[in-house]
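Q: What residues go here?
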């Protein structure tokens, strides 16, 4: 049983499903397994969450706090209020610490280099947090910028946009011993997810 951070800070945030009326631990585990996730979690009787990486031990709670009966089988328990009953699915955990790929020139708001996802992580950003976030969302590349911004992409940035590593000189908001890009400069990492081609995605001029 694990403590969940609620809507703004999910513990398992690869996928969330509302299975009101049908949720059981087996249904959630099967669903996450079929989607390729290593972990499944049930919460609040009818919610199913999936993740590619294991939740931290620091978030463990007493099993007695996972006391909500499952919507699909009231002889079993499916988490609680902000509590997750967590299971392995049999899929191998896929987190691979990301490799540093280089410092790249970003085109700013109108022409992002990594344009799958952008997050403002002011106060908390580190390379590992950005890599982990992008990994969980299924992106192959992660990039940190301007101390607190995290970007994700499914495709590799072009070599023509490479810059000197010295230009990625902004210290990370969450760890000032590390660097997180710069002004219109991205520190880019691989996440361990295989690069995927998405038809119709504009790659550049």
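A:
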């Amino acid at each position: 049983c694990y403590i969940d951070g609620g809507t703004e800070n999910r513990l398992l945030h690869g996928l969330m499903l509302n299975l009101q009326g049908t949720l059981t631990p087996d249904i959630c585990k099967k669903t996450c397994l079929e989607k390729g996730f290593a972990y499944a979690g049930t919460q609040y009787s009818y919610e199913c969450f999936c993740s590619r990486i294991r939740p931290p031990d620091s978030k463990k709670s007493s099993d007695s706090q996972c006391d909500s009966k499952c919507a699909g089988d009231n002889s079993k328990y499916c988490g609680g209020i902000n509590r997750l009953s967590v299971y392995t699915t049999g899929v191998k955990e896929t987190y691979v610490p990301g490799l540093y790929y280089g410092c790249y020139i970003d085109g700013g708001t109108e022409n992002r280099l990594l344009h799958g996802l952008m997050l403002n992580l002011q106060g908390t950003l580190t390379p590992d947090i950005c890599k982990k976030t992008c990994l969980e969302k299924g992106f192959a590349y992660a990039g940190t910028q301007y101390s607190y911004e995290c970007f994700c992409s499914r495709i590799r940035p072009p070599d023509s946009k490479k810059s000197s590593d010295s230009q990625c000189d902004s210290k990370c908001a969450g760890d000032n011993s590390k660097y997180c890009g710069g002004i219109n400069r991205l520190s880019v990492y691989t996440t361990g997810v295989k690069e995927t081609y998405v038809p119709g995605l504009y790659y550049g001029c």
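A: Context that may help when evaluating the design: The radius of gyration is 19 Å. The longest strand covers residues 83-88.
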